[in-house]
Write a structure and sequence with these properties.
Mean pLDDT: 89
Largest sheet: 6 strands, parallel
Structural class: alpha/beta
Order of helices and strands: HEHEHHEHEEHEH
Distance between the termini: 79 Å
Number of strands: 6
Strand order of the largest sheet: 3-2-1-5-4-6
Oligomer: single chain
Low-confidence stretches: none
Length: about 200
């Protein structure tokens, strides 16, 4: 006999994660506070996300950003995922350690980052230059767009360089959080192997 349907459907809850501790505070950093901090950093590393709407992807990007030592993750306030319990659980502590800065106008924020001395490298499947041929050892912002749509036009136009991750199989692109990890840790690799200043 079929089970009667419940009239009140429960909303799915975020899965428990033994690495997630939601007791910590999420750092509150304004856009202006971020710009004020950048000059004191030797080689700022910032992750810029354009139109990432899936909270699981945002959480995974924050986790990778923390692991790579990124100084901030920047995303638009509108048409993008915001900080939620699900994001924090997926980030496994990254949301509590990496400032997540939501901005009203991403293109304007990118221009301010360039004024602060950062080079902005956007990821695009159509780029001629490979990620591994791109200098990520200095002050840099790595820009990723939503899966399928990629970066918006103004976001692309505000990048200094475009680079692509080489794909050798049948799939056309990586999940955005995986791509973020690849890009961030290529920056880490380059910084570890770069010649030290005398």
């Amino acid at each position: 006999m079929p089970r009667p349907r419940s009239s009140s459907r429960r909303k799915p809850a975020a899965r428990d994660n033994k690495h997630a501790d939601l007791s910590g505070e999420v750092p509150r950093v304004s856009e202006e506070e971020l710009y004020a901090r950048l000059p004191a950093l030797l080689a700022p590393l910032v992750l810029i996300l354009d139109g990432i709407e899936d909270p699981h992807n945002l959480g995974a990007c924050l986790r990778s950003a923390d692991a790579a030592g990124a100084h901030a993750v920047i995303a638009p306030k509108h048409h993008a995922a915001s900080m939620t319990e699900t994001v924090r659980r997926i980030a496994c502590g990254g949301a509590e350690s990496v400032p997540f800065v939501q901005v009203t106008n991403l293109a304007r924020s990118m221009r301010k980052l360039k004024d602060a001395g950062l080079w902005l490298v956007g990821t695009a499947d159509e780029a001629d230059q490979l990620l591994y041929e791109t200098d990520l050892s200095g002050p840099v912002g790595i820009v990723l767009g939503a899966e399928g749509k990629g970066m918006r036009r103004l976001t692309t136009e505000n990048c200094d360089f475009l680079a692509r991750i080489p794909m050798h199989g049948s799939v056309e692109c990586l999940n955005v959080s995986v791509a973020a990890g690849v890009c961030l840790f290529e920056a880490v690799r380059q910084r570890r192997t770069a010649p030290k200043a005398p």
